[in-house]
Known about the structure:
203 residues; 10-stranded antiparallel β-sheet; Glucose Permease (Domain IIA); binds zinc ion; alpha+beta
Amino acid sequence: MGLNFAAVWGVLLLALLGKTNSDNLRRATSSKTPHYDQIFANKPDYTANGFDFPVGKPNAKGYYNAQKFGKNTHLGDDWNGVKGGNSDLGDSVYTIANGYVTEATNLGGGWGNVIRIVHKTSGTKWHYVESLYAHCDKLNIKKGDWVKRGAQIGTIGNNGGMYYAHLHLELRHTPDLPLGGGYSKDTSGYLDPTWFIRQHRPK
Length: 203
Ligand SMILES: [Zn+2]
């Protein structure tokens, strides 16, 4: 009797352990971003259908890239109005593609108001990319919003006078990376935004 009980419990325990192991294995071998697979599953209209520039839409007319990705270990592009100074303060910032807003908040420090948007791509080697817009003056969207390419998401700011007004734009090929510091020799996880946008203009 005692032996039989032990045997039964042993079988149950093995079954439980086996289930846990197979679940872990399934998790480890599925997409790295199952969370976003779920979020985008019922929103086919919000898969990216091309990428535009975030200012002077769609081609950055009236703006120039004052500090390109890679210059001075910069991890993004700095978009400025051609008239210089704070002439672009309050100008519109547009989402570079359809996507899902994962952050729209003031992060303080050198960042100020930051927007992060995850884009499901089609026809690129990255399943998802994330765009990040920093130092915004105003935020026109909130976390959880869905946006279409070219929608106004905020305005260009100067982070309370810390800089001349400009838009710092980053592009990451993995969503939800740590915020980072805007500059680093280590560019793993980051893409050159201008290069990527030029490669993926709408058809
Ligand atoms: Zn910058």
